[in-house]
């Protein structure tokens, strides 16, 4: 049975991207349920699921809600949006029920490993005394309750987005009093390990390691917090979390700097419309009524009952207080023989293009390249784009060093990188104060490309070294996201990188790109031509193939072109991590298209496009997904891989992923997330296999260099 919101009656059916996004998060939940994963990692996958769901409501659900409330579209489209909202709410509830069951299962598994998550109802008398002491000494100083009596407090404006709160009810002889308490997770760890000597002793004489959530510490001591200020016979507290619309409006007035506008936008987000209220299902009906009235929730707001704990995203950082086997085994980043055999990064890149695949390779080669550039007397200018960087970025510190060494440094800062705006604003101010030329690019386009261009005087000539990647210059995410980076001194390619930087500053000038695929102006026509070329090969009876790896595939024009390619006989394979509106395997429309999704310990983030091209295979890596925003509304850059050896490496890794039969799911027309069947084939877990592939390559290259 097809989903009611799929457009199967049209020439080219599509799957709603919001529901496809939920299917993706369902795959995250599958990882939490997978008993082959260590229990601590399973718990962390629940945190990832929760964090993803927060963003889903802040962005996707908020957009659907605006379609309904603002009535921007024709009545038929508004009706479609209302049906879509109903489908979203139904699937969210189903996923929530699975989430709760998985959480209970993981708790039982942790108990087998001598780790127990306990609540305040299970505390012994000695533990209770310790918790009250901890509350008085460490917690209470971070708490200032909001009292809900009268009209002084506007709860809809006061509650911060995606923050854990407790709603408190105090009852006695008079009418009930209500208050809101924020759980201070920004100040204290969410996970409190009880002193070992106070914990439950197992039969073998060992103590069980027990963890109490900060939420339960506060609930256990809630009477102490309000005693002396209110008279009550009974007091109870239940958790809640509000999620707001992540969109924000920036004034177009000319007397504000862009940074000031963005700062205002972030403040506005704190007061934007609520799109989801998640609350403890045990919350009494009267408390929920008071809460809903205070927040002014509408009929299209999502009121979602759940377990007693909110903000599970904190579980991403759940500590392992047990044996190391409770986590994934370490996979130390591999060395790059290409970089290692030369004295400087510039010597290595000049000897030939270098491709790194994070986190399998060490991201330190990029930071070291920028560090060397910061003091190299031959370097004259460093240019870089900045979308998401670490809070303590070594890369930016090297750029600051470069300015102090007299280098000219230009950094294109994307202030509209969603949820990283504040970090980028702070870095932009610091860099500007240090003397770096900070460019904010185009107000209507996000700068999402991952570019670095270093100019160097060599024997009286200016030589440029470039980097084009699929991921951000972020030391933290480079350890958990899979991304590819190309280092090159191919002067035509580096010249075009320079043109991209010029386009960002001077978009009105004419530019021509013969090598790079550049959004927004040049990307759609180039991608269309590449797909059409495969169609032409198929029509002429020649072999025609397309192999894609993207995070999201939802651009309507591209999806329709892929359908046409399938109808023409082009064999299409796609590895997609997240949203996919294309429905494969439909007779007469997409029978030549197969799609899988790989989800494992690392977040698949690299984008790769492969076109058979009559046997002269073209391979590109890119920062762009195949979404309308990436093709038409952002500055994105894709680069061809010309080096035959590197091209083969990319093809090999794609082939390994395609053959995954452990962590790969089939994306079918209903997005049911069925695992690829292993059958009698040997087990292939692609992320481990890719790591082993590069480890073997590293070993062979080291042997070859020693023999030379």
From TrEMBL:
EC numbers, comma separated: 2.7.4.1
GO biological process, one term: polyphosphate biosynthetic process
Cofactor entry: Mg(2+)
Gene3D superfamilies: Endonuclease Chain A, Polyphosphate kinase middle domain, Polyphosphate kinase N-terminal domain
Sites where the protein binds Mg(2+): 388, 418
Matching InterPro entries: PP_kinase, PP_kinase_C_1, PP_kinase_middle, PP_kinase_middle_dom_sf, PPK_C_dom2, PPK_N_dom, PPK_N_dom_sf
Active-site residues annotated for this sequence: 448 (phosphohistidine intermediate)
Family: Belongs to the polyphosphate kinase 1 (PPK1) family.
Function of the protein: Catalyzes the reversible transfer of the terminal phosphate of ATP to form a long-chain polyphosphate (polyP).
Name listed for the protein in its UniProt record: Polyphosphate kinase
Gene (name only): ppk
């Amino acid at each position: 049975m097809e989903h009611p919101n799929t457009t199967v009656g049209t020439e080219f059916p599509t799957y709603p991207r919001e529901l496809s996004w939920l299917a993706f998060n369902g795959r995250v939940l599958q990882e939490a349920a997978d008993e082959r994963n260590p229990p601590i990692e399973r718990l962390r996958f629940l945190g990832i699921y929760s964090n993803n769901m927060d963003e889903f409501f802040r962005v996707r659900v908020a957009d659907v809600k605006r379609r309904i409330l603002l009535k921007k579209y024709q009545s038929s489209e508004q009706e479609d949006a209302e049906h879509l909202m109903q489908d979203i709410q139904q699937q969210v509830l189903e996923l929530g029920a699975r989430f709760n069951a998985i959480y209970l299962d993981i708790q039982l598994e942790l108990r087998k490993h001598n780790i127990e998550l306990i609540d305040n109802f299970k505390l012994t008398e000695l533990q209770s005394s310790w918790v009250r002491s901890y509350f008085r000494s460490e917690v209470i100083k971070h708490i200032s309750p909001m009292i809900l009596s009268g009209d002084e407090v506007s709860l809809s404006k006061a509650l911060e987005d995606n923050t854990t709160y407790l709603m408190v009810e105090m009852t006695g002889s008079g009418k009930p009093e209500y208050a809101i308490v924020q759980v201070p997770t920004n100040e204290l760890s969410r996970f409190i390990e009880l002193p070992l000597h106070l914990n439950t002793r197992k039969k073998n004489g060992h103590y069980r390691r027990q963890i109490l959530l900060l939420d339960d510490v506060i609930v256990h001591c809630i009477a102490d917090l309000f005693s002396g200020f209110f008279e009550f016979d009974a007091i109870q507290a239940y958790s809640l979390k509000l999620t707001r619309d992540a969109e924000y409006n920036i004034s177009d007035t000319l007397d504000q700097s862009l940074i000031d506008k963005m700062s205002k936008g972030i403040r506005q987000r704190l007061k934007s419309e609520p799109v989801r209220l998640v609350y403890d299902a045990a919350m009494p009906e009267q408390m929920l009524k008071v809460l809903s009235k205070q927040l002014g929730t509408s009929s299209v707001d999502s009121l979602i009952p759940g377990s007693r704990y909110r903000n599970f995203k904190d579980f991403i950082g759940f500590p392992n207080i047990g044996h190391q086997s409770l986590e994934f085994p370490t996979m130390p980043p591999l060395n790059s023989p290409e970089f290692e055999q030369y004295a400087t990064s510039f010597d290595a890149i000049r000897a030939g293009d270098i491709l790194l695949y994070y986190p399998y390779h060490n991201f330190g080669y990029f930071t070291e390249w920028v560090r060397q550039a910061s003091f190299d007397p031959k370097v004259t200018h460093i240019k870089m784009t900045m979308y998401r960087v670490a809070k303590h970025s070594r890369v930016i510190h090297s750029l600051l060093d470069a300015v102090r060494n007299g280098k000219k440094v230009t950094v294109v800062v994307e202030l509209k990188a969603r949820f990283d705006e504040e970090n980028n604003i702070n870095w932009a101010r610091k860099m500007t104060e240090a003397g770096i030329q900070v460019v904010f690019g185009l107000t209507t386009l996000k700068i999402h490309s991952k570019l670095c261009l270093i100019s160097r005087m060599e024997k009286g000539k200016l030589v440029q070294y470039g980097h084009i990647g699929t991921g951000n210059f972020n030391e933290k995410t480079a350890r958990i996201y899979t991304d590819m980076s190309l280092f090159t001194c191919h002067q035509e390619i580096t010249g075009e990188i320079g043109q991209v930087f010029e386009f960002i500053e001077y978009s009105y000038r004419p530019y021509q790109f013969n090598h790079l695929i550049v959004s927004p102006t040049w990307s759609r026509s180039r991608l269309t031509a590449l797909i059409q070329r495969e169609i032409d090969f198929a029509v002429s009876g020649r072999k025609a193939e397309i192999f894609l790896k993207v995070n999201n595939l939802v651009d309507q024009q591209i999806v329709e072109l892929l359908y046409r390619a399938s109808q023409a006989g082009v064999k299409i394979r796609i590895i997609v991590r997240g949203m996919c509106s294309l429905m494969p395997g439909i007779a007469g429309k997409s029978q030549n298209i197969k799609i899988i999704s790989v989800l494992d310990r690392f977040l698949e983030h690299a984008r790769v496009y492969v076109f058979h091209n009559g046997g002269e295979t073209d391979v590109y890596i890119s920062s762009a997904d195949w979404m309308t925003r990436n093709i038409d509304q952002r500055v994105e850059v894709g680069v061809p891989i010309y080096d035959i050896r590197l091209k083969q490496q990319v093809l090999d890794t794609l082939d390994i992923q395609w053959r995954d039969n452990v962590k790969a799911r089939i994306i079918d027309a209903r997005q049911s997330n069925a695992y690829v069947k292993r059958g009698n084939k040997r087990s292939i877990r692609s992320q481990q296999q890719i790591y082993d592939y590069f480890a073997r390559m590293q070993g062979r290259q080291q042997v070859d260099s020693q023999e030379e």
